[in-house]
Design brief:
GlyoxalaseI/FosfomycinResist; 311 residues; nine-stranded mixed beta sheet; alpha/beta; single chain; VOC_core; 17 strands; eight-stranded mixed beta sheet
Length: 311
């Protein structure tokens, strides 16, 4: 697929057993706003984003329910569905009206690793606002990273099937590709694929207003008692800042800011050496990346593969 019909990342949906604790963390500590919900389900928005919500929490066994992307129009959703069917991609739900918060028109399908992916258009936007100086809450959802045993194969599938473009690769001589950063718009990556022992969620990233807000937000989360996995530092691939934490259910989540915007006509992907400390952290301020740090983001084997969420 040469041109992507996908415009941006909309939301990431998580199922978790300790629903009340998770909801309190994401609203009281992480800085999201609950905009809708029902018994055992909540839709959480970022105050600076027009997206109806950026995270959905659902009470159930721990799993990644789905990853949702936007499309420009209902016609593009239909065109994508035809392309998927022609390639033999299993549809979870054919194009139609969405019943979740914000409505819209969309479809769901399984990617090659069994994750549920949604692509939608005409979703209602929400009234959002400018995040003010020193206001250390997420502006928007930045990106999602997914674990799998063959990140090159997964990245190629997303290129061929969904039109994503490779921005950069992180690799090690002894293990090959460690992470492929993929984009669907000029932002350096909306999704990335990491090498892990199994298919699972690696991390979900949220963008803050700037460096000061990033540091203030990171400090607030540290003071809450949440585990800081890695940070604060600044990657070379994407040029973004990072603070990685564990949420109450053991999912890795990130505060970031200043993710690179690429000139797509001139950009050529790099292969970066994962063992180069200056690539992992340009500033040299974060704790070193090692096997123990990497293992925190392996997460649990996702039990929801090739099984669509009930909502």
């Amino acid at each position: 697929m040469t041109d992507s019909l996908i415009t941006h990342l909309r939301h990431v949906d998580l199922a978790i057993p300790d629903y009340e604790r998770q909801l309190a963390f994401y609203t009281d500590v992480w800085g999201l706003t609950q905009v809708a919900g029902d018994t055992g389900i909540a839709f959480l928005a970022a105050e600076g984003s027009p997206e109806r919500y950026v995270i959905r929490l659902r009470k159930d066994a721990k799993r990644l329910d789905l990853v949702s992307f936007g499309a420009a129009s209902a016609a593009d959703v239909d065109t994508l569905a035809e392309h998927l069917i022609a390639r033999g991609v299993p549809l979870v739900a054919e194009p139609g009206t969405l019943e979740t918060e914000g409505g819209g028109y969309g479809l769901r399908f399984f990617d090659l690793d069994g994750r549920t992916i949604e692509v939608s258009a005409d979703v209602e936007t929400r009234t959002h606002r400018r995040i003010e100086e020193r206001e250390s809450i997420p502006v928007r959802l930045s990106h999602v990273v997914l674990n799998g045993t063959d990140p090159d194969r997964t990245a190629q599938w997303y290129t061929d099937t969904l039109g994503f473009r490779l921005s950069d690769t992180l690799a090690g001589a002894e293990m090959g590709t460690v992470m492929n950063f993929m984009r669907c718009n000029p932002r350096h990556h909306s999704i990335a694929f990491a090498r892990g022992p199994h298919v699972s969620l690696h991390h979900v990233s949220f963008e803050l207003r700037g460096i000061d807000e990033f540091m203030r937000g990171s400090g607030r989360v540290i003071r809450s008692g949440a585990k800081l996995v890695w940070g604060q530092g600044r990657h070379l691939a994407g040029d973004n800042t990072y603070s990685y934490f564990l949420d109450p259910q053991g999912n890795t989540i990130e505060y970031t800011t200043e993710l690179a915007e690429l000139d797509e006509d001139a950009w050529h992907p790099h292969i970066y050496d994962m063992h180069d400390e200056a690539i992992q952290d340009q500033w040299g301020t974060a704790n070193p990346m090692n096997e123990l740090v990497a293992r925190e983001s392996f997460n649990d084997l996702d039990p929801g593969l090739f099984t669509a969420p009930p909502v």
